[in-house]
Amino acid sequence: MREQRAGHRAERAHHTREFDAFVAGAAGRLLHAATLLTAETRTRNPHARALLTAALAHTFAVWDRLRDEDPYDLTRRELAARFARTAWRHHGGRGGVLSALHPQERLVVVLRLYEGVAEEQVAAQLGLPETRVRAVHARAVAALRAAARGGAGTPGGRTAA
């Protein structure tokens, strides 16, 4: 019985070390993605940090059941799903580079451009048709280009009332 407990403790310690190594390597990029999503700045990003912490907690909880699944992809999907469920909290910009975009536009832009996720995977993850993802992406990129040029109208191609 003691040997069995010791074996479980050793295995748990091994999983913890693996997870710690994963976090050490991936947390910076994931935090940047979360900061882009929440439209916060790099120096002031409490919502992004909370999203990342929750996503990493989920990954840690299933760590010993991961087989061939990439923990980074799992964490990124969880981060995006948590953001999508709470996007209404992140509607207004907080000064971040993507703050001019609607939360759904930010989500698509971050997944497609920053993370390099294929359009069909983004569509599947968000439960949207690929044509919708393509349209949201195009609108968001156009809005960012217009904002960079000091363009007319408001972000997202919407006109001011």
Write the SSE topology:
Layout (H helix, E strand, L loop, with lengths): L1 H37 L7 H17 L8 H15 L17 H12 L4 H8 L3 H19 L13
Helix pairs in contact: 1-2, 1-3, 1-4, 2-3, 4-6, 5-6
Describe the protein in words:
It is a single chain. With 161 residues, the chain is an all-alpha fold. It folds into two domains: 1-97, no CATH class; 100-161, Arc Repressor Mutant, subunit A (Orthogonal Bundle), CATH 1.10.10. Helix content is 67%, strand content 0%. It is built from six helices and no strands. It has helices at 2-38, 46-62, 71-85, 103-114, 119-126, 130-148. α1 (2-38) runs antiparallel to α2, α1 packs across α4 and α2 packs across α3. The longest helix has 37 residues, at 2-38. The radius of gyration is 19 Å and the shape is elongated. The chain starts with a helix and ends in a 13-residue tail after the last helix. Mean pLDDT is 86; it is low at 152-161.
Key phrases:
Arc Repressor Mutant, subunit A; single chain; mainly alpha; 67% helix; 6 helices
Q: Given the structure, what is the number of helices?
A: 6
Q: What's the SSE pattern?
A: HHHHHH
The secondary structure category is mainly alpha
**Strands, total number:** 0
* Main beta sheet strand tally, sense and closure: none
Level of helix content?
55-70%
Compute the average pLDDT.
86
Q: What does the oligomeric state look like here?
A: single chain
Question: Looking at the structure, what is the overall shape?
Answer: elongated
